[in-house]
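Archive entry: two folds, one per protein. Generate the first.
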Amino acid sequence: MGNMEWVRSSGKGKIFAYNIHNRAFHPGFQNDIPYVYALIELEEGPMFATMIIDVKPDEVRHGAPVQVVYEDIEAGFTLPKFTLVR
């Protein structure tokens, strides 16, 4: 773990792999059903696991370009998620 460092990211990437969840694995995701969970390949190279939001599941495709968006969950808690670049 000594070779890790913080690096600024553009927040852009493409969908490397994804799946569509039709059941919530945790009650906190129940209102999001169905939702798309994806592995994003960032332009800078690292992979990032996240949700794809503001999209119908049948619109998602392998290799589709995506952009980070930030969702405020509650005061002091924000999650990075991604949306399709249209």
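Generate the second and append.
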Amino acid sequence: MNVLDESVPRDQADLLRLWGVRFRLIASELAQPGIADEDIVSLLRRLKQPTLLSRDSDFFDRKLTHPRYSLVFFDVLPAETAFFMRWFLRHRSFRTSSQRLGKVIRVQPSHIEYWTRTAERTVTIKWQ
């Protein structure tokens, strides 16, 4: 299940819907608007294999890795968020929720990097 954080601009969420990307909105479908980051993490633990898609850099923290969810921080221009979300979700290394689980990921225009719980440093994958 893809979960869209309230940090994602509404026009970008509308583009994702137009492109057929399925997601649930955290602020209106799963929790109250303005939910704290630590409460989002607790919520994710209760959902089935969620991937949080966010523009909040606080979610790119190795301490937040957990086998029941994945966190993806999009470090891109606001107007490019939907494009990179769709591109990320189609990437051969992250296409399925099982490929994303247990990772804290940062998506940038030049590459993707991620933490796993046991890693000493991030793994970097260049866009192809």
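Annotation attached to the second fold: Helices lie at 10-18, 26-30, 37-46, 81-90, 97-100. The longest helix spans residues 37-46.
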